[in-house]
Amino acid sequence: MYASFTTYDGTALAYRETGDGDPVVCVPGGPQDSLYLADLGGLSAHRRLIMLDLRGTGGSPAPADPAAYRCDRLVDDLEALRVHLGLDRMDLLAHSAGANIAAQYAARHPERVAKLALITPSTRAVGVEVTADDRIATARLRQDEPWFDEAFAALEAIVAGQVTGERFAAISPFFYGRWDEAAQAHRAAEDEQKNMEAAQGLGADGAFDPDATRTALARFDAPVLVLAGEVDLNSPPRAMTELAALFPTPELVVQPRAGHFPWLDDADRFVATTTAFLG
Fold first, then answer.
1. CA nearest 225: which of 102, 69, 81?
2. Secondary structure (DSSP) of 231-245
3. What does the alpha-carbon distance between residue 48 and residue 262 come to, in Å, rounded to a whole number?
4. CA 82, CA 107: separation in Å to the nearest integer?
5. The pLDDT of residue 195 is above 90
6. Which letter, b or e, does each residue of 190-218 get, where b requires 16 or more Cβ atoms within 10 Å of its Cβ?
7. Among the four given CATH numbers 3.40.50.720, 3.40.50.1110, 3.40.50.1820, 3.40.50.300, the one describing domain 2-131+196-278
8. Residues 116-128: pLDDT tens digits?
């Protein structure tokens, strides 16, 4: 079921609701249509998922001013959604680039977050670097798979600065625990749904203040889950360990053989982990 709310500048943004129970506000990555999250592997059987379509994605219009794509501005959209839902505090789940929004939200509005689940998160908002060595070491875990040689050659070229669209397409298998038909279909749909202008605008000048965000999160006392995928090239476990350490009492879980979309790789394990955390 789709609904809409009016954010701080009068724009009507869309969100999707699925499932029953206490709400969990879900922030997608990309930015892209929240449909790629589906029902998070069946999490909707336990909680009511409120999936936000960020500006310029899904049912939400692109802003007249591209500066509204900036991560710090999207934090204001998330606060407007909380107010619209009538929640004093909310459980917040964010995936990938959406974690930059959620981290800044928690830093700015800590009293409004009951629990924070960061799923294979991006770390730009807090300045944790994912190094070339991190990516190469993670990629080597897949060396026995039939597609490895071609994908690894493309990855080596990318980390050496030889970036092309074809090479990015070639490394797609590294983002999934299994490079099967379901993963390939998911990747194709994700590519279609992503708003590249919004993705670039998310990190525009002024979007992040890592030092200030880290300082604020060091005082964030709500429960935090950082869920990493063992073979996730985007958010490797070493960087996720560093991210988790920024919070006072984090729970770090590395899901075995999972890539960047752990609810696809092992839905039962993902749902068990997130429901145990969210309650």
1. 102
2. T-SSS-HHHHHHHHT
3. 19
4. 16
5. no
6. beebbbeebbebbbeeebbbeeebbebbe
7. 3.40.50.1820
8. 999 999 999 999 9
- Residue 144 has a CB neighbour count (10 Å cut-off) of 6
Other C-beta atoms lying within 10 Å of the C-beta of residue 181: 8
| Residue 20 CA: distances (Å) to CA of 1, 45, 48, 51, 68 | 12, 7, 4, 13, 32
Give the integer Cα–Cα distance in Å for 9 and 135.
39
Pairing of strands 12-18, 48-52: antiparallel
Write down how long the chain is.
279
Q: Please report, as a single letter, which amino acid is at residue 227.
A: L
Classify 102 as helix, strand or coil.
helix
Q: What is the pTM of this model?
A: 0.96
- Please tell me the distance from the alpha carbon of residue 125 to that of residue 140, in angstroms, as a whole number: 27
Q: How far is CA 11 from the centre of its chain?
A: 23
Structure tokens at 35: 């449909």
Q: Identify the DSSP state of 62.
A: P
pLDDT digits (tens, 9 = 90+) for 57-93: 999 999 989 999 999 999 999 999 999 999 999 999 9
**How is residue 191 written in tokens?**
């590519």
What is the Cα Rg of the chain in Å? Answer: 18
